[in-house]
Amino acid sequence: MRANKKTFRTFTTVASSLFIMLFSVACGKQIKDEMQRKVEQEESLNNETSSKSIVGALNWVGIANVTYNAEVGKNLQAVGLIDIPAEKSRCTAFLISEDMLMTNWHCFPTVVNTRGAKFYPTYIEDGAEKGEAYACEELVVTYEPLDVAVLKCSGTPGKKYGVVTFEYPGKIHEVNESIYVIHQNCDYWNESECAPTKKYSPGKIVTAGSVPAPARELDLFYDADTLGGSSGSPVFSANEHKVIALHHNGHGQNYSSKGRGDRNSGVAIDKVIDYLRANVGALKNLGGVFVSTPLLTAKGEIATETEVDYYDLTIAKASKIKILLTYSANIGDLDLYVTDRNKKVLAKSESSNDSDSISGTIQAGRYYIAVKGYQGARGTYDLTAE
């Protein structure tokens, strides 16, 4: 019931491994002119993993042309294009909470890259406008070794379009297991001015082949088709429709192959969640997983007019805290308090709107969280502190 919240980790900006250098080059950039093609050529000749791969015959489909079940339909809504004007680039991102999305570190390595960034969850039809846009300029997390970034958006797109569900704890995924990737892209190698509309790429888990470490240790490998611009896409299990990997890499191609290669890969999502849980104390329920372990969760009942429920709270060091009490005011109006060990009230919330909350910075020490009925009210409640 108690946890020492850890320091918020942000803004890793310096390339520290050859692996990241190999796959970060040119990801997310649409090739439109000869200068860009020359850059891609020089990079591809030197780096086996400089771009994402179409594996064999192109078999992705635009979502306007595919029949899908309710689970796939839910996931399709949560994925969108993210424009990166600061880099004249684009990636794919997906909603993990009401106002946060996940994509790749190499799309947003620093806060500078977020300037003007916008998320488009409804860019579906060729020839159509990009649709509704959400500004996503707050960089919450960016972590190079796992190629993950989390951005906060204005408004609540996740409330309208839904959020994905993470597979956590992770499972062992066997070769030939069916998966799919949802991403924003088009085959710009063969049609330079194509529109990166939303695509569904079916595929299967494959072996790592000759891909060297550390990718072999971090990634899942699959044959679903992607290209540069698919960076940051969610990889879903076709059985449970949960995110199993964060797509970020392609293998086996060179410039003359026009984006064709032998496999793609994504960071196993349980490794991403493990990192967030251990190092990020400011996030809550993302993708169906509590990223920051709650200090306290409880269900209770005030059963008599004089009852007061006390919960022990130990804080190891000064931390930001939010305490939330929810109940039905129609049944009984309850109130929320924080007290010292002598039960002296330090903070309180006495609303009558089905919930009470207390937020702020709390110093290291031992406290009580107290719940009582207003003027003898009774009722059940849920209590969280994080």
Instruction: Quickly count the helices.
Output: 6
Low-pLDDT residue intervals, each spanning 5 or more residues: 1-50
**Helix proportion range:** 10-25%
Q: Give the class from helix and strand content and strand pairing.
A: mainly beta
Distance between the amino and carboxyl termini: 10 Å
Which CATH architecture of the largest domain would you pick? Beta Barrel
Q: What top-tier CATH class of the largest domain fits best?
A: Mainly Beta
> Which strand order spans the largest sheet, edge to edge or round the barrel?
2-11-10-13-14-16-12
Residue fraction in strands: 35-45%
Question: Could you please describe the fold and organization of this structure?
Answer:
The chain has 386 residues and is mainly β. The protein folds into 2 domains: 256 residues, Thrombin, subunit H, CATH 2.40.10.120; 90 residues, Jelly Rolls (Sandwich). It has 6 helices and 26 strands. The strands form 6 sheets. A 7-stranded antiparallel β-sheet has the order 2-11-10-13-14-16-12. The chain has a 7-stranded antiparallel β-sheet with strand order 7-6-3-4-5-9-8. A hairpin with a 4-residue loop joins β4 and β5. The longest helix is centred in the first third of the chain and has 13 residues.
Kindly summarize this structure in a few lines.
With 386 residues, this protein is mainly beta.
